[in-house]
Amino acid sequence: MLWVAVLTLLVAVIALSRQIGILYERIAPMGALTMDSGPKVGEASPVFQLPSLNGQPVDIGAAGAKSQLLFFLSPTCPVCKKLLPILKSIRTVESSWLNVVLASDGNQPEHEAFQRRAELTAFPYVLSAELGMRFRISKLPYAVLIDESGKIRSKGLVNSREQLESLFTARDLNVASVQEYLDQPQFAKERA
Q1: pTM flag (> 0.85)
Q2: Does the pLDDT value for residue 190 go beyond 60?
Q3: Nearest-angstrom CA–CA distance, 156 and 143
Q4: Within 13 Å and on the Cβ side, how many CA atoms surround 114?
């Protein structure tokens, strides 16, 4: 009787393992959610020269030696705060090819206090309502990856490390987003 129970459990485990494998194949990785507004991927970025909170000029969207990750945040956004350690890590690890710039709008003293409290003084941090309007930022946290030539390579709403890194993956794959890559015919057939 025990052997029958063990064999039944073995068959159930094998069946469940197979179903988990099928489910894993059907669920595609989720990248940053790309909004349809603002400058499109592949277009030239709007160019700005803005003062940072510490008074240094920051060029945004201009051609330069490195790519630029423009990260829109708010001191009151809990998801933004959750991503700050990840941004610090990215700034260190990817420093050979990437500059990270923090952007927001609003009350400068509030942002200066937030910058000190969150230990963000090493980042260029700019305040500009026009910057957010030109990129059509409606939700936070939002990130835009601009390449060395000043073109937008990828962008999207980012709520996790995976979504933030999907911007880099999209750049490496030369697509607008991970979703666009997975919508290519060879992947669409596999998911159907």
Answers
A1: no
A2: no
A3: 6
A4: 24
